[in-house]
Design a protein that fits this description.
The protein is α/β, with parallel strands linked by helices and 427 residues long. The chain has two domains: 150 residues, Aspartate Aminotransferase, domain 1; 250 residues, Type I PLP-dependent aspartate aminotransferase-like (Major domain) (Aspartate Aminotransferase, domain 2, 3-Layer(aba) Sandwich), CATH 3.40.640.10. The chain contains 15 helices and 15 strands. The strands form three sheets. A seven-stranded mixed β-sheet has the order 4-10-9-8-7-5-6, sandwiched between helices. A four-stranded mixed β-sheet has the order 1-2-3-13. The chain has a four-stranded antiparallel β-sheet with strand order 11-12-15-14. Strand 7, helix 10 and strand 8 form a beta-alpha-beta unit. It binds pyridoxal-5'-phosphate. The site of pyridoxal-5'-phosphate has 15 residues, from helix 6.
Length: 427
């Protein structure tokens, strides 16, 4: 059965309430926690967003990589519709078993290469949560308990090495080790137990290790921190240091995993295998919250027994059917390969535009994760202009325009985007 044939799509949007009214409601009744672009999205399909007056915008944000397979991918939508109509969607409780969770865990655990091979080859295990930050916290629990149980570190003294410009989410423990003052100021008391080293500084990592160090937590390519690739050999160096000191090496691939950078997993670029990986966003194809921490079976069993963790919605059926469908789409539609090929061509074209622009400081990135750092340090100025021209993009760390469209874009979208970048960066 071809899922695209079974879907009857509505042509209506949620409402036809005018944009001004929506702006007013969101501003009156909602927290002012995002700097907003002035647009109300009414529909999203593939790589395109639509406004009330039917204007189309190319989505170059993809909800920070959540919409990697394109918005409302028919196979993922169909899996959700089937689950809702078939009465196997709602949350039950992980106190019983559900078949969607079983399917999802197996697919996810086996898609990820064997993690932490020094802990054995009995496969991976997966712990499912909702938003990405929850799985970062799961990984922090894993690391601390490993330090306590296996390394004999006194409980409460465990330390994890993290990096400057990191971004791992917004809850208290995670903002506690952010190097952005605005993310944490006034939210104290902050969570102790994190030591910060410059991203790329292997010597700094070695110096930061002491008897209480239990793990290294790193984004194999930084997303919110400005879209930086680590220097060559850095991840390999981290692996060596972790092995030499019996530390867990944990990669947060919430934004850069699942095809975004041209490989299923970003760590595959350098063939450095972590002990645990955190995935989120695109793992459910951008339709329901789902995130996971995946690790070696030995480590998962060492730390997590009944009562040690849990989440009401974590791994609930609706999220899991989306997860199964989204991972199938990733593999069947070769999204990583597409990102590698299209991204290479797009980056070359952006570099060409940049070579004629006085506004661009640097173009960097891999796959369909491309940053354009601007000289004036204010990427949102350009993002607002892009929005007027029919492109949704936002900044990374203030100074960089983030270009991260859905991985299904083709040459037509590439040309559309480059034409508009030319207008805002060169004309
Ligand atoms: C690398 C990384 N980790 C964690 C998170 C937090 O994910 P969430 O916003 O789903 O909690 C993000 C979100 O952008 C991220 O980019």
């Amino acid at each position: 059965m071809n899922p695209t044939q079974t879907l009857t799509r509505s042509t209506q949007s949620y409402s036809s309430v005018p944009d001004d009214q929506i702006f007013n409601w969101e501003e009156t009744y909602g927290a002012n926690h995002y700097g907003r672009l002035h647009m109300v999205v009414r529909k999203a399909e593939g790589a395109w967003l639509t406004s009330l007056d039917d204007k189309k915008y190319l989505d170059c944000l993809s909800a920070y990589s959540a919409a990697n397979p394109g918005h409302h991918h028919p196979k993922i939508v169909q899996s959700l519709v089937d689950a809702l109509q078939g009465n196997y969607a709602s949350v039950i409780s992980n106190v019983v078993y559900t078949d969607p969770l079983g399917f999802f865990l197996k697919k996810c655990a086996t898609l990820v290469p064997q993690l932490g091979p020094r802990f054995g080859a009995k496969g991976n295990k997966v712990l499912a949560k909702n938003g990405g930050v929850e799985s970062v916290e799961t990984a922090i629990k894993l690391a601390r308990a490993y330090g306590y149980q296996e390394k004999g570190i006194e409980d409460g003294k465990q330390e994890i090495i993290v990096f400057g410009n990191n971004f791992h989410g917004r809850m208290i423990t995670v903002v506690s080790f952010s190097t952005s003052q605005k993310y944490k100021e006034g939210f104290g008391p902050l969570t102790p137990g994190f030591v910060t080293v410059d991203f790329g500084d292997i010597d700094g990592v070695t110096k930061a290790i002491n008897k209480n160090t239990c793990a290294i937590l790193v984004e194999p390519m930084q997303g919110e921190g400005g879209m930086y690739q680590p220097p060559d050999g850095f991840l390999k160096g981290l692996r060596e240091v972790a092995d030499a000191n019996n530390l867990l090496l944990i990669f947060d691939e919430i934004q850069v995993g699942l095809g975004r950078t041209g490989k299923n997993f970003c760590f595959e670029h350098e063939n450095v295998i972590p002990d645990a990986i955190i995935l989120g966003k695109a793992i459910s194809g951008g339709l329901v919250p789902l995130s996971v921490m995946v690790t070696n079976t030995h480590l998962m069993d060492l730390v997590f027994q009944p009562g040690r963790d849990g989440s009401t919605y974590g791994g609930y059926p609706l999220a899991c059917v989306a997860g199964v469908a989204a991972l199938d789409v990733l593999v069947d539609e070769k999204l990583a390969e597409k990102a590698a090929t299209i991204g290479k061509g797009l980056k070359a074209k952006i570099l060409e535009v940049a070579s004629r622009s006085k506004q661009v400081k640097e173009v960097r990135g891999r796959g369909l994760f491309i940053g354009i750092e601007v000289n004036n340090g204010d990427a949102m100025v350009y993002c607002r202009k892009l929005l007027d021209l029919g492109v949704l993009a936002n900044d990374s760390h203030g100074h960089t325009i983030r270009i991260s469209p859905p991985l299904i874009i083709g040459e037509k979208e590439v040309d559309y985007l480059v034409e508009r970048l030319e207008k805002v960066l060169v004309d």
